[in-house]
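Sample pair:
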Amino acid sequence: MKPKEKLASSKRSNLVLNELKLRSFTGDRPPAGFDLVDRMPFLFVRVVKAKLANAEKDSAMLCKLVIGTHSIRTKSQKEKDWDQVFAFDKESLNSTSLEVSVWTEKTAADGEVTEAVLGTVYFDLQEVPKRVPPDSALAPQWYTLEDSAEDSPGTDVMLSVWIGTQADEAFHEAWQSDSGGLIPETRAKVYLSPKLWYLRVTVIQTQDLQLGSAPEPKVRSPELYVKAQLGAQAFKTARTTISSSTSANPTWNEDLIFIAAEPFEPFLVVTVEDVTHGHSVGHAKIHVSSIDKRTDEQAEPRSKWYNLIGDEKRPYAGRIHVRVCLEGGYHVVDEAAHVTSDARAAAKQLHKAPIGLLEVGIRGATNLLPVKTKDGTIGTTDAYVVAKYGPKWVRTRTILDRFNPRWNEQYTWDVYDPCTVLTIGVFDNGRYKHDDAGTKDVRLGKIRVRLSTLDTNRVYLNSYSLNVLLPCGSKKMGEIEIVLRFSCSSWLNLIQSYSSPMLPRMHYVRPLGPAQQDILRHSAMRIVMARLARSEPPLGQEVVQFMLDSEMHVWSMRRSKANWFRVVGCLSRAAALARWLDGIKTWAHPPTTILVHILLVAVVLCPHLLLPTIFMYAFFIVLLRLRYRQRIPANMDPRFSYVDAVGPDELDEEFDGFPTTRSADQIRIRYDRLRALAGRAQTLLGDVASQGERVEALLNWRDPRATGIFVAFCLCASLVFYALPFKAFVLGSGFYCLRHPRFRDNMPSAPANFFRRLPSLSDQIL
């Protein structure tokens, strides 16, 4: 080898070695897929095929596995090839031996099925080898069957037996003893929400409309509107009247916005309706796949003319001018705004690189309550977990008939924004038996974790209470054990994300109205529910509704009280500050009041130190509160939700559907209660409006004497402040406000009396 080649090869080897060292030094943890959960031991048995010396043509073969009370059989096949994997939970095994037997199955002419054993092979579970990934799969071997009949030919079976964990590659496709075997509805699955777009239809105008459709005399001013329909969504423009000046060419210039989900619906149908004659003028079909996409407001989509198709007698009913585009610069909101988990735009080219990785380990649940009966006598629960973050949904396998199930499954999500929420729900599986088509999964509880409350690169192992709201109140259904880890790849990108807008740019350049956003959000929820219900196995509509909080907009006395006390809690800080200032003014603690006097003099004499002092004080106060920070991520709190602060009738009102199904007497009682609450809110709004109207009355000469007094005061104040130094005014005002109680009066001050006497517009309301 030449010296140059030796030097190049040594450089390449050193480069590879340095890369390996760099990876080992920079890696905070080993790249294990199940490092947040416990490894659950499983006994794996892979039955591949059997070999029979003299095989009969019409006979089928099957294999039976017996471990104590556990007995399972493969599918019966004539080809003798099964290639099936069975996974037995090792902790639930009640025997130390495994029996694998091969049977023949014959069907007589009368339909009677007879089985005959060909032999059995035995395994001692103490001698079974262990396999830990990333080791390769254990190669199956031929085993000669024992205990066979004397006249039966020699039979061999190819199989492999090993001890593994849920991290084994064969686990997900194997028959699982703790989840009912190969039932599709009990398997662990990952679902993806459909990719959603806003479809904007701008109806501009129509031309050459053929309105004559009947021998009746024509109406002078017929009314028309345009209806656009995409799947089950339908929106209409405002009505317009055709007069002689418009010559059947009405103009709308209105935007209709739909939710389009990939794969798209085939057609967007635009119809011109004649309200006066009560029939359709014509319609046009637009291929959704041919619609242009845009990512910003600068690329204006081109408009097109489409011919309107009428009935058989009118193949041409005019034409319509529309502008249609798929808005890729918006994020389509499909969940409640306060628990959003993704805010990326629909267009993939606008996506940024992820700033971190979220790892969730679903370990297990404890003390679950029974929600149904088994065999009509024994209570049971078949629990599974659904976790949702962004467009990715994960569903664990269903553990059958256990009140303390252990899943020990781990999943990961890419994080694009730390100010998002992870939602985890626990449900009872009621669909896997197929006993009743109307059976639904029962909700057992839900938790939410806001990622911004988690420290980066730290493991959180906590148990959370599962509380579910019922018509009789809040009920604890058990506890769930969750492990969380939020890994950050770049601290700079993480800090920068706090200054970036929550939504894409189009939401601020061309914003949608609040009412329109609410309508589109519910349309997006319905589309997501319909698409996930079409998966296999389906994710139930009740599950998706519970995870997306689709009923948050429904009136609830409990939520109203909770939100009211949230406002009171925020204002309590200002009330505490006001009480502290009142204590200083009333000399409740004389040393503190004296210190405030000294601080006032220092601020007046050195005003440039005011802002540095305030920010330094805030720095120390917030820093000292770090030790009182909540170390465990908060869970949904029934006390904070004011579940116990409302009565049974108010909870029943929350569970009532829309429209209501309750009796007239109940509706009357609830309506009277709502009227009383609205009366208090009405009085509060009137008082707030009166304060602003008094200020306007002071400037608009509604009370000429009061405004004259104010004008005279302004003139005198301007002369006084011209001659009086500003520092002297501030110092004098401060000392006056902090004067001793013996120099105070209990009566209201003159400015307060003057302001309260100003007129408002409340006396003009009927």
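The two ends are 105 Å apart (CA to CA).
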